[in-house]
Design goal:
The N and C termini lie far apart (about 75 Å). It is built from 22 helices and 20 strands. By secondary structure, the protein is of the alpha+beta class. One of its GO terms (molecular function) is penicillin binding.
């Protein structure tokens, strides 16, 4: 009996002790950590009654050493307004005197100011935004009748255009301000804050954070920590910009991903924009992320997947040969190699080395088109990957539903089916990681509160090809780089690199394909047999050049060498 009583006392004491600790922790964060935030809110409410504080969680890049680098945050300043009705009825000031007085401290939009001052029946007109503390203090010191200052916050992206398509921006949709595009939109419920945070109940906040830690959802408030490495991101963007300037491509894109985990280290698209000044863009289509929201016929980077499927069902080996006449006829349609030239008897290794369309079609014939169709679906080319970005679209595999031989032959070398770059990257990663599909993701961790965070995207892998198949196709792709890519001149003696080019004709809206418009693509991974990175690049309609090996092979190798040196990756041969 006494033991039971002592136990109860201990439980009650522990509960009170825990409660006291929570109060102390909360007091520390309110008075020390969040003091500036609460001070600003109080000051804003004192100066002007505002409906919203625009509070929002931060987004961070993460460098290779684990340090967080701010990618999106809140910046505070002042909103300047005038009271036209009060000015009109005053004998002390005039619009001219007010304009001249303010202009000594801040450059006003003259047209906007005078248009606002003429609205004499309006009690309140905003005329300027994002004033600094110094500018606001100087104007306030003048004590100008009819002039009003109120605290405001806005979204700020310290790196400007860096990773703009991944981050998105915050803007108005109707009367509501919310995340638009990118992570800002996808994680809107996580990033947005209660507009009246001073009224947040302490216990509700504590237990909400605990809940978030145990069972996170998109509705729990937090900050985002991404897998984007800022230095790598800049290098990728610079590389794409150089290629775009040389070849004047309509669009460029690139992804650098860890093929074992799906963590995206860098993701970029050109043309791009500055999320701090998104409202200056004349065409909103620039905000669309072509790596996730657009589909393309990818060309010959499909051949390694076709070959992997054939190897996986033992339909072919690297040494299997066929007779290449330079063309084949399927369903009454002629399909040729890129140059129309026949090579006679060649092996499957040479199909990849020389990128032979007839050889890819041969692999489909050997395994059966139904089996090939099943592998295309297993590789996830017709579905969303689930990447943490909005508006992802599915691939278009309609040609494979027709059961026509020519459609299957075309699909074997990446024509006639259209997929998103991110879906292609996920499928190709299975060759680099031993045969599994991984979950592509940008956010690696959500931080909910003091000491509370949760790793995300720990999704089980789905095996699509055997490990032995992945090893063999990797060996074959290393051979492509060592002996065939740019004549073997890009071979690295100390590192094995697996890679393949892709050149796809652009479909004409009037039927058939253009003869002079192409999509160039390139992918590769390294070190090939223990891949740390997979790099994917594409260029839409580069001018004055036909093959992807001419536009993207050297940029890929430059990125590869940079990553090897930056991450100090040891040689593997």
């Amino acid at each position: 009996m006494r033991a039971t009583f002592v136990t109860r006392i201990r439980i009650i004491f522990s509960a009170f002790l825990l409660l006291a600790v929570l109060f102390v922790v909360r007091l520390y964060f309110v008075q020390i950590v969040q003091s500036e935030e609460y001070s600003e809110i109080a000051q804003s409410q004192y100066v002007a009654s505002t409906a919203a504080t625009d509070e929002r969680g931060d987004i961070f890049f993460k460098d290779k050493d684990g340090r967080l680098v701010t990618a999106a945050t809140q910046k505070s300043g002042w909103r300047l307004a005038i009271l036209p009705k009060e000015i009109y009825e005053s004998e002390e000031v005039t619009p001219d005197s007010i304009f001249n007085s303010i202009s000594t401290e801040y450059t006003l939009d003259k047209e906007r100011f005078y248009a606002s001052s003429k609205k004499t029946s309006d009690p309140y007109e905003e005329i300027a935004f994002k004033l600094t503390d110094e500018e606001a203090d100087n104007i306030r010191a003048k004590n100008i009748k009819g002039v009003f200052l109120s605290r405001e916050k806005w979204r700020f992206y310290p790196a400007g255009k860096r990773a703009a398509h991944a981050l998105g921006f915050v803007g108005f949709q109707g009367n509501e301000k919310s995340g638009r595009y990118g992570l800002e939109r996808y994680f809107e419920d996580t990033l947005v804050r209660d507009k009246n945070i001073l009224d947040t109940n302490f216990f509700a906040e504590v237990f909400s954070n605990v809940k978030a830690f145990v069972s996170p959802s998109s509705e729990d408030e937090g900050e985002l920590i991404t897998s984007i490495e800022p230095t790598v991101q800049k290098r990728l963007e610079d590389s794409l910009s150089e290629v775009g300037s040389v070849w004047n491509a309509k669009k460029m894109g690139g992804i650098i991903m860890d093929p074992k985990t799906g963590a995206i280290i860098a993701i970029a698209a050109l043309p791009t924009f500055d999320p701090n000044q998104f409202n200056t863009e004349p065409d909103s289509s620039i905000f669309v992320n072509p790596l996730v929201e657009s589909v393309y016929e990818m060309g010959s980077i499909m051949k390694p997947l076709t070959m992997a499927a054939g190897l996986d069902v033992d339909a072919v080996t690297a040494d299997t040969t066929y007779y290449d006449a330079g063309f084949i006829v399927k369903s009454g349609a002629k399909i040729s190699n890129y140059d129309g030239i026949g090579r006679g008897y060649v092996s499957m290794q040479e199909v990849l080395n020389q990128s032979l369309n007839t050889g890819a079609s041969f692999v489909v014939d050997e395994m059966g088109k139904e089996t090939f169709g099943e592998y295309v679906e297993e590789f996830g080319l017709g579905e969303e990957t689930g990447i943490d970005l909005p508006n992802e679209v599915k691939g278009i595999l309609g040609g494979l539903k027709s059961k026509s031989d020519v459609d299957y032959a075309s699909a074997s070398f990446g024509q006639g089916i259209a997929v998103t770059p991110i879906a292609m990257v996920r499928a190709l990663s299975s060759l680099a990681n031993g045969g599994s599909l991984v979950q592509p993701h940008i956010v690696s961790e959500i931080r909910y509160g003091p000491g509370l965070s949760k790793k995300v995207w720990d999704k089980p892998e789905d095996r699509v090809i055997k490990k032995e198949t992945a090893e063999e196709i990797t060996r074959m792709l290393v051979e492509v780089v060592d002996t065939a890519l740019l004549g073997g001149t890009v071979k690295e003696d100390r590192y094995s690199i697996a890679a393949k080019t892709g050149t796809a004709q652009i479909a004409s809206p009037y039927g058939g394909y253009y003869d002079d418009r192409f999509l160039h693509s390139f992918f590769g991974y390294f070190p090939a047999h223990d891949a740390k990175f997979l790099v994917f690049l594409f260029a839409l309609e580069p001018e004055g050049v036909r093959y992807a090996s001419q536009t993207l092979a050297n940029p890929f190798m430059d990125l590869t060498k940079f990553l090897i040196n930056y991450y100090d990756i040891p040689p593997d041969r």
